[in-house]
Design a protein that fits this description.
Number of strands: 15
Number of helices: 5
Shape: elongated
Order of helices and strands: EEHEEHEEEEHEEEEEEEHH
Number of domains: 2
Largest sheet: 7 strands, mixed
CATH superfamily of the largest domain: Ribosomal protein L25, C-terminal domain
CATH topology of the largest domain: RNA Polymerase Alpha Subunit, Chain A, domain 2
Length: about 240
């Protein structure tokens, strides 16, 4: 939610290798696709597009203006790694009256204000994105979780502590089917977002994780030829399909 993001686009007749000329002129080729419509080739001024991509990301709807107005989500941005310029943009058109699902950032509210941090402890964020579902114009810029009440090492906040705006729901992909009927199904709301650590304990944990990664690399190096052959076989099978 927030200010409406608008982008002026034009229909594009240039395709193939000829789009190189467009890029030299500061124009980015793109496409808009979605249910109930033929894919539409578009072009847009690079300067305008960069601002919109920075503001919208892939979780905020963009109002496309031109010959036909559409609400769309950015699905893919192809970046030239040398020039750091946008080479191509893909939009997925959505309907204003139909909910869409997308990932949004999780924002910790009150960083530096908790008693834990004031006492020299560290709050480590474990989950930085979550999938939500809402009408396009109701999609939030972020899901906020308050950490100001954290005090001691070991305490945590979960998605159940999140502030979820009205009309927005957190998507849980658990289908509810389990082999053991008595097993309690964990809710996505139980996922840990952030926890409190003693600095020394966090340093020791990071050192242990780095050590495990080194051990795994050594094992992979010793068995590299076998794994390489197995990977080649899988790739060949996929190619045959």
């Amino acid at each position: 939610m927030g200010d409406k993001i608008t982008l002026a686009v034009e229909a594009r007749d240039v395709h193939g290798k000829k789009v190189a000329k467009l890029r030299k002129e500061g124009v980015v080729p793109g496409v808009v696709y979605g249910p109930g419509m033929e894919p539409l080739s578009i072009q847009v001024a690079e300067n305008d597009l960069q601002k919109v991509v920075a503001a919208a990301g892939k979780h905020t709807p963009v109002n496309l203006t031109g010959s036909k107005r559409r609400i769309a989500m950015i699905k893919d941005v192809d970046i030239d790694p040398v020039r750091n310029a946008i080479r191509h943009i893909s939009f997925h058109a959505v309907r204003a009256d139909q909910p869409v699902a997308t990932e949004v950032p999780i924002r910790l509210v009150g960083e530096g204000e908790s008693e834990a941090e004031k006492n020299g402890l560290i709050i480590l964020q474990a989950l930085d994105r979550v999938e939500v579902k809402a009408l396009p114009m109701d999609l939030p810029e972020s899901i906020d979780v308050d950490i100001t009440k954290l005090k001691e090492a070991g305490e945590k906040v979960t998605l159940s502590d999140a502030v979820v705006p009205y009309g927005v729901e957190i998507v849980d992909h658990d289908d509810g089917h389990h082999d053991d009927e008595e097993e309690e199904t964990p809710s996505i709301l139980d996922l840990m977002v952030a926890s409190v650590w003693e600095p020394a304990a966090l340093e020791a944990s990071n050192a242990a994780a780095a050590g495990s990664a080194t051990d795994e690399s050594e094992v992979e190096s010793e068995n590299g030829s076998d794994e390489s052959e197995a990977t080649t076989e899988v790739d060949s099978a996929k190619s045959a399909e």
